Each structure stands twice: as structure tokens, then as C-alpha cells.
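Team,

Forwarding the record for the chain on the shared tracking sheet. I've put the sequence and predicted structure together so nobody has to dig through attachments.
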Amino acid sequence: DADITQGQVAFAFGGATVLLIWLPAESSAPAELVAVGFDILVDSQPALTFEAVSEGAIDVDGDEGAFGGFAVVDQAGTTLGGGLIGGWSCGGTGFFLSVTGSDSTIVQVRFDRVLDGFECAGR
């Protein structure tokens, strides 16, 4: 069961799938949260190959974060789509956001919308 200290929520959002996980993470660096999120995705779908394609920094409600982009390839080598992973900390809680889909423009727009709407409740 989700509560204020840890949990997850997944939902469809205009052509993309969104997964947000939060957990206690007092000292986790944003890049570490992105790496954990990437590992969760890879482990949850062993029949697919996840190929990292980009990384960088993001700002989430004034907090430093990191992101990674990836492509998803099936066993036949066909690219199925991709996604973006974001990681950041707020008030002792680490957040991992994954947005996936078949259209990279939609994925980017949905990723940005979720981040733009995020507010750190610890302030």
C-alpha cells in the first residue's frame, strides 16, 4: 500500500505509460535513482532489450535531477518504442519517473508535463 514515504502509481497518459515510484532516499544522487529505475524496467521485461541513448540533468520544482533516455528493442531487433526516466530527491524522499511509449514526441511531452506539475510537499 502506498503512503507518504513510499509507493508507486502507474497510469496511461495521452499515448504514453507513466510510472512514478517514491521511497526513502536521504542521500541518493539523482543519477543513482535513474540507474535504479532503469534496472527496475529491465528486470520487469526480460524478453526485451533496453538501450540507453541519452542522459542529462533536469530541474524538478527547484531540485536537481537526472534523466536518461532509452529505446526498447524486441528479440527480432525491432524497435518498439522507448522512454525517459527521471530521478530526483525531495525532502528525504527519492522519486523515479518513467514515461514510455511508441512515439518519442509524445513521451517527451508527457514526461515534461508530469515534471512541470510536480511540487515538493516538504517545502
